[in-house]
Amino acid sequence: MTVSLFVPCYIDQLWPSAAASMARVLRRVEVDIEYRPAQTCCGQPAFNAGHFAEARDVAEAFVHVFRGADVIVSPSGSCVAMVKRRYPALFAGHPLLEEACAIGDRMYELSQFLVDVLGVDKLGAELHRRAVFQDGCQSLRELGIHDQPRRLLRSVRGLTVAPLDHSGSCCGFGGLFATRFGALSAAMADETIQSALARKAECIISTEASCLLHLRGRIERRKLGIETMHLAEVLATREGARA
Amino acid sequence: MSAEPTASAPHVPTRTPRDPASRTSFAQRTEEALLDPFLRVKLRDALDQALAARAARADELPQFEEMRRRAGDIRRHVIGRLAEHVEQFIETAESRGVRVFLAEGAASARQYVVDLARQHGAEHVVKSKSMVTEEIGLFDALAEAGIDVVESDLGEFLAKLAGDAPSHLTAPVVHLSRADIGHLLEEKLGVPFTDRPEEITAIVRDHLRAKFLGSRLGITGANFLVGETGSAVVIENEGNVRLTTSLPPVHVIVAGIERIVPRWADLELFLTLLAASAGGQRLTAYTSVFTGPRREHETGGPDELHIVLVDAGRSDILADPMLREALCCIRCGACLNTCPVYRRVGGHAYGYTYPGPIGQLLAAGLWDAPSGYELAHACTLCSACHGICPVGIDTPALLIQLRNTAIEAGKHAMLRCWPVRLWRWLMLHPAMYRFAARTIGRHGVARFPSLAAAAMPGWVAHRELPAIAPRSFGRLWRDTRGFTDE
Predict the structure, then answer these.
(1) Is residue B258 a contact partner of residue B82, using CB atoms and an 8 Å limit?
(2) Same structural domain for residues B45 and B185?
(3) Domain boundary, last residue among B362, B381, B416
(4) By percentage, how much of chain A surpasses pLDDT 90?
(5) Do A142 and B378 touch (CB under 8 A)?
(6) What does DSSP assign to residue B418?
(7) Where are the domains of chain A?
């Protein structure tokens, strides 16, 4: 089995270390990985904004890029949810429908793949931090990812994960929502950040890089002392190599 | 009174909460709401209580998920053949002596009730809480006709006293604290200030009791209309519906045409789900069933029972194969309680009678599409509402569909869509996408911050922009030969 990595456009450009960490983690558990450089985007930004025609064109390209891949793993739950949950409707009546659905069946978010498919929950990671875990909404409610990241984080030496108030509630990102309703989106981010600070967390961890970029942007603007880490970055740390 | 709206020209309510939706945008109204430092706390405390009670009740019901599925199936069946079900309901209700009026628009519904009040010489009428009467602007229509309307529901009474519309489907004054209410009563009724719930209730009860006795007309909504028996079912916790319907000689029920459940036996399921979803109750304190007026051998009940079935745009929603899903709603308000947007800004910011996720769906269908389309974007697609809905309405998926409808219907589609077209072109040309990202990373944002501000004003006003990494993942992969070097 070769795992083909899907690195969404915004992670590729804005947070490549999250995807690099995913690659290192998969190498560590001795999985064969490949990266198809023609990949760009699953089409989610346009789809969520209601631009179905443009989304379908980009989704078609996605299906072509990942044609023949055994398994596709991504560090973004919302992109995985887009392919698994939205492609069937997006490709309704389209000649690629069957193939699009088949690709969705072979696609996993990183923590889901590690725990559910590989049965791995210990990666020899070590990180001395007090953290909170922020669920990605699509990971949690579209893909049912709840225990997997928590199990992985529990095995990280030195890490304590405190529960957030209203665990599972949205941080206010929502794609274009964040810029269209900037003040509201920021106020929602503040709720999450406030809850993390109240837990004396040094770090907010999530499976969703887009939400973390939004939270990080808010944290930087408010000059608060709390960092954001993608789950893959936490898992890619190594025992003995103290961060 | 405005002219009768036709099916193709959706009705605009005469009375919208605080700001008419046409004059300000949702974005502006949310910014106003965010300035209120207490609103968030008031909402959070009340809504958390409702959510916790709902969760506890859901745990207690062994078949909760199965019940939701069944309820969703029944609602979809009714909505799928609504015209038939409405016809059957009217026939059965009329056979029980009910006078049914099918109102195509809000204006004719208002007029029917106003005429009825005049006919019976009612100088004042008592009314229980009903969102449909809010929707059609009945309160104002009666007031304009010189008829005094007494709100008998505590929350609704307080909302009207404050000059507000309800801000929640089941808790009209969730935006007011106990102290707010104490000050309101002090100011409007001249009573000494108190923020104790029992005292507030006693003050309002004293004020209302006298009004019940003299009223010739009682107005209620209906939670369910039972097709099989022609009954209207109203649930409540205060007993005011009982008083509203038992003392006046004439009772008018105003309900949307979509409130129908086919069989009497379905009620158990719906009453249980509605009470559980709204506030975690096993049943509401009172469940009233109205099947026809008082018969000769009976001692209680009104002499006349009227049911006004309100369409007012529902048939238009029904004609939309996607949006008709919104008509399945049973108005429990759980989607409001869990919605991160509603929780932050409250109901008035939406600008329509029905706030929250379900209101975002109804706004485009019941009122005017263009303003409704803005609300379609006021959602982060977190799906918390879908997760809690007792009949499984997938609101985020429907809002995405509405966004698409707006684009297809938009006059400025070509103009507004150029960024999407550019995005599409870049995503289909990986080499160009990588080149563009590299160029922007090297020169763009850092050198032209105003460009970024112009492109994403809402982002940069409140957050720092993320930087484009010096080496993309694609580059890292190539440079490290797929991370095999380490």
Answers:
(1) yes
(2) yes
(3) B416
(4) 95
(5) no
(6) H
(7) 2-116, 121-235
Predicted pLDDT at B213: 81
Interface contact flag, B464 A220, Cβ < 8 Å: yes
Cα B443–Cα B445–Cα B446 angle in degrees, nearest 5: 70
Cβ-contact B419, A49 below 8 angstroms: no
How much is the pLDDT for B485? 67
Residue B95: partners with Cβ closer than 8 Å, 6 or more residues away: B230
Percent of chain A with pLDDT over 70: 99
Query: Which residues in chain B have their CB less than 8 angstroms from residue A180's CB?
Result: 27, 377, 458
| Record: contact A40-B407, CB cut-off 8 A | no
The dihedral over CA atoms of B223, B353, B302, B98, expressed in degrees to the nearest 10, equals -70
Give tens-digit pLDDT for B191-234: 999 999 999 999 999 988 877 788 899 999 999 999 999 999 99
Task: Count other C-beta atoms under 10 Å from residue B302's C-beta.
Answer: 20
Mutation site, B473, B476, B477, interface A, largest A CB count within 10 A: B473
Picking from B416, B446, B468, the residue at the C-terminal end of a domain is B416
Mean residue pLDDT across chain B:
90
Half-sphere exposure of B247 (CA within 13 A, CB side): 20
Q: What's the pLDDT at B37?
A: 85
Residue B245 to residues B128, B166, B184, B215, B283: CA-CA distances in angstroms?
9, 22, 28, 10, 20
Task: Give the nearest partner residue to B463 out of A40, A184, A218, using CB atoms.
Answer: A218
Number of domains in chain B: 2
Q: Which residue of A has its CA nearest to B435?
A: A13
Nearest CA in chain A to B28: A181
Q: What gap in Å lies between CA A34 and CA A80, rounded to an integer?
A: 18
The closest of A136, A155, A71, A175 to B458, measured between CA atoms, is: A175
What's the CATH code of the domain at B1? 3.40.50.10420
Measure in Å the smallest separation between the Cα of A219 and chain B Cα atoms.
8
Instruction: Give the model's confidence band at B17: pLDDT under 50 very low, under 70 low, under 90 confident, else very high.
Output: very low
Whether residue B330 sits in one domain with residue B381 = yes
Q: Is residue B261 part of a domain?
A: yes
| 3-class SS of residue A117 | helix
3-state SS assignment for residue B464:
coil
B460-473 pLDDT, tens per residue?
899 998 888 999 99
Q: What is the pLDDT of residue B411?
A: 58
pLDDT beyond 80 at B97 = yes
User: What tokens were used for A14?
Assistant: 């804005």
Interchain pair A170, B424: CB under 8 A: no
Indicate yes or no: CB of B441 within 8 angstroms of CB of A186: no
Distance from CA of A14 to the nearest CA of B (A): 5
The structure's pTM equals: 0.93
Range A121-235: architecture per CATH: 3-Layer(aba) Sandwich (3.40)
The residue range of the domain holding B439 is 434-479
φ, ψ dihedrals at B210, nearest 5°: -60, -35
Integer Cα distance of A158 and B434 in angstroms: 38
